Amino acid sequence: MTGRRRTTALIGDDNTVVVGGRRLTWRTLHKLPQLPSPAAVLVTNGADALAALRHHAVHGTELLVATESRVDELMREELGESGFAIVGSDGEVTPAKLKRVEESGRAWLLTSGSTGRPKRIGHTLESLTTVTADQPPRTWLLPYSPGTYAWWQVVTLSLTQADQGLVVIEPHELETWPAIAAEHGVTAASGTPTFWRQAIYRDADALAAVPLEQITLGGEPVDQAILDQLRELFPKARISWIYASSEVGASIVVHDGKAGFPKSWLDRDPDPERPVLSVEGDELVIRSPHHGAGLVGAVHTGDRVEYDGDRVLITGRLDTDEINVGGSKVSAGVVRNVLMGHPGVSWARVFARKAPLVGRMVAAEVVTNESLGPITDADLVQWCSSRLPDFGVPRRIRFLDEIPQKETLKSDV
């Protein structure tokens, strides 16, 4: 095992951290015993995840942190065979099956697995700490699943910046998080579009009572409808959306209240501090200074883009976004955005369905806002017909009772 060292200055060590209703600081979080290294620490709550992160920051332990529910038996085997000791939520340690030299200071992230089994991406605390400029004092909501890239983004901000408190939201608190946030004075919150839609759908008044000054969206395609809804609820807040991933880090940050980013950002002159964005075919390609280990150069993101005037819109994954209807192609993301532009639609998923003659047709699942009155599939077909070509109009629409949301705060869009 190599020598250990503190990997970064813990400027935020005295920031307030609220976990399980307890008001602590990073410094007064419970301390973990000396971990084996490399270690995969599997947790069931936010407090243990934060304790593992602080241990990593102080000691340089090679660390992967994730919830137990995200790591199945096959993944445990893969981790053990890659040299990780598995530390369970009960503290029990399963030794690594392979002995190897520790990479001191290395932090490993599991990708979301949206395109297959989760992959491990290597980072350091420095590469994960992308906010380095001084920030105004804020109290941040932390709803993300421990170990995800978005989780690391929020926790590193609190750990390395002064006056950046945290209020941790556990999975069982997601339905009532606005009340918790209001109680503890949360002024900044980051979540997926699905996360924000859920909060508006459940109780828009409770959400509006949170004194938010900074609202951030990421993790899924961000459409104009959700930006406009948040602007209506929080007219004075700064609303930002971020394109970030474990592979390329935080690469696009937009603050102008519009979906997509300016076309002028494509192929800008190289800057060592700024990602270079380009499009090859319909795919977003990024060269990023915040990339994961071994991902130097152009990274093909697998995300599909479309142009809308002077904006570049990220519509979805290449392998699922394009629907071919009898030889005519339509973006599922574009159709989804049209559906969610309807004032009575709170959420929508668009996908291809087999059909006679044309091979595929456009289908959708939607969740409607019943407070605005009943909405039928005929209403939505008529709405889409005036905004989309005929082959892009959903011909099968299924109504769901609630917005589906995964542990990563995403839905299958």
UniProtKB/TrEMBL annotation:
<dbReference type="Pfam" id="PF13193">
    <property type="entry name" value="AMP-binding_C"/>
</dbReference>
<dbReference type="InterPro" id="IPR000873">
    <property type="entry name" value="AMP-dep_synth/lig_dom"/>
</dbReference>
<dbReference type="InterPro" id="IPR042099">
    <property type="entry name" value="ANL_N_sf"/>
</dbReference>
<dbReference type="Pfam" id="PF00501">
    <property type="entry name" value="AMP-binding"/>
</dbReference>
<feature type="domain" description="AMP-binding enzyme C-terminal">
    <location>
        <begin position="337"/>
        <end position="408"/>
    </location>
</feature>
<protein>
    <recommendedName>
        <fullName>Acyl-CoA synthetase (AMP-forming)/AMP-acid ligase II</fullName>
    </recommendedName>
</protein>
<feature type="domain" description="AMP-dependent synthetase/ligase">
    <location>
        <begin position="87"/>
        <end position="260"/>
    </location>
</feature>
<comment type="similarity">
    <text>Belongs to the ATP-dependent AMP-binding enzyme family.</text>
</comment>
<dbReference type="InterPro" id="IPR045851">
    <property type="entry name" value="AMP-bd_C_sf"/>
</dbReference>
<dbReference type="InterPro" id="IPR025110">
    <property type="entry name" value="AMP-bd_C"/>
</dbReference>
